[in-house]
Predict the structure.
Amino acid sequence: MNTLDLAHEFLRRYIRPGDICIDATAGRGRDTALLCRLAGETGRVLAFDIQEEAVRQTRALLAREGLTAEVYLDSHANMGEYLACGSARAVVFNFGRLPGGDPRIFTVAETSIPAIAAGLECLSPGGIMSLSVYYGGANGYEERDAILSYLRTLDDRKYTVLTAEWSNRRNDPPIPIFLWKEI
């Protein structure tokens, strides 16, 4: 079991055919593909990444699997410009860097916090958000600390936030975070 497995299980429990879903950090497209399968042909999936290579890999994976999504070369902080406020059932984030990608390019708090805020605005009542926070190494700890601090400020009458911690994993294991928007 790892952070990705937990995030995918969380998504499987809540997303239904016809839902609108956002992959805020497309990366290699694995989350985008899962969202497409869960939302089905009647759903809508939007995916964002700032790296052309990530957009290319996501589109290629979707084509191989016969799936359809709207894949944008744009910052996740701009997701609210692509759909109506309060319309998304799920928003997924993987913070850090693209595995195998340019190690000098990774998410940073200055755009990640506004992106989370935009994602919260996009969520419908009863919607969910999955955040996987990869940190350490070249990324450092600033983004991790900023995300955790920001999430602690969310109104507990509007959101439930669960942050998990790996107790027996070495080095800097990714942090799985799950959020529910109250009805």
